[in-house]
């Protein structure tokens, strides 16, 4: 669910940014070389990993929509650290 919402938000932002950039370039008298603009245009959004609670919320949503599944907590054993 979070991925679908993020995709819609990114699409909307991409369209708005395209319109803004078109108007910005239309108002420029002398355009600079592409690398000057590429730094801001091609920036990447940092995205962290989903928390366990976010993952659980996604699965709960899927289960409430009728997807048959069993959700249970699995405890992981910590790997022993290597001696120095």
How would you describe this structure to a colleague?
The protein contains three helices and no strands. It is mainly α and 84 residues long.
Instruction: Give the N-terminus to C-terminus distance in angstroms.
Output: 44 Å
Provide the residue-averaged pLDDT.
81
What's the helical proportion of residues?
Answer: 55-70%
One letter per element, helices H and strands E, the order comes to HHH
Q: State the shape.
A: elongated
Number of helices: 3
Number of strands: 0
Looking at the chains present, what oligomeric state does this protein adopt?
single chain
Summarize the structure in short.
The protein has helices spanning 2-27, 34-41, 52-64. It is mainly alpha-helical.
List the keywords.
56% helix; mainly alpha; elongated; 84 residues; 0% strand
Task: Draw up the topology in text.
Elements lengths: L1 H26 L6 H8 L10 H13 L20
């Amino acid at each position: 669910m979070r991925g679908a919402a993020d995709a819609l938000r990114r699409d909307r932002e991409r369209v708005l940014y395209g319109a803004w950039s078109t108007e910005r370039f239309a108002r420029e008298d002398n355009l600079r070389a592409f690398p000057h603009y590429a730094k801001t245009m091609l920036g990447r959004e940092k995205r962290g990993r989903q928390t366990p609670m976010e993952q659980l919320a996604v699965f709960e949503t899927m289960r409430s929509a009728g997807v048959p599944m069993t959700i249970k907590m699995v405890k992981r054993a910590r790997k022993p650290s290597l001696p120095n």
